Amino acid sequence: MIPINEDHLRQVLREWVAHYNRGPHASLGLGIPEHSTQEPASASDVYLIPDGCSVVAKPILGGLRHEYRLERKVA
After folding, report:
1. Residue 19 phi, psi (nearest 5)
2. Rounded distance, CA 65 to CA 72, Å?
C-alpha cells in the first residue's frame, strides 16, 4: 500500500496496529500478543469447523489482509 499523505499513513498504521495486537499470528503458533484468558486450542483442533458454524472473513486495510472468525449459521 502506498500512502497518499501523512493522514492516510496514520490511518493505515492505526488500523494495522489494532489488527496486529488483537489477532493470532502464524509466526506465534496459536498464541497472540495480548494476554488472553482462553486456553489455546490443541494443534489437532485448529482447522476443525464446528457443526452449525461458518467462517466469516473481514477485510483489513482495504482487503490486503483479512481477519477470520467463526459465526453461527442462521437457520
Report:
1. -60, -50
2. 23
18 neighbors 33 (Cβ within 8 angstroms): no
Cα separations (Å) of 50 from 55, 70, 73? Answer: 10, 9, 11
Report the distance separating Cα 28 and Cα 23, nearest Å: 11
Domain assignments of the chain as residue spans, ordered by start: 6-72
Count Cα atoms within 13 angstroms, Cβ side, for 21: 6
Report how far residue 48's alpha carbon sits from residue 71's, in angstroms, rounded to the nearest whole number.
13
pLDDT in tens, 11-63: 999 988 888 887 666 554 554 455 555 565 565 556 677 888 888 888 888 88
pTM: 0.46
Q: Grid coordinates standing for 34? A: 495480548
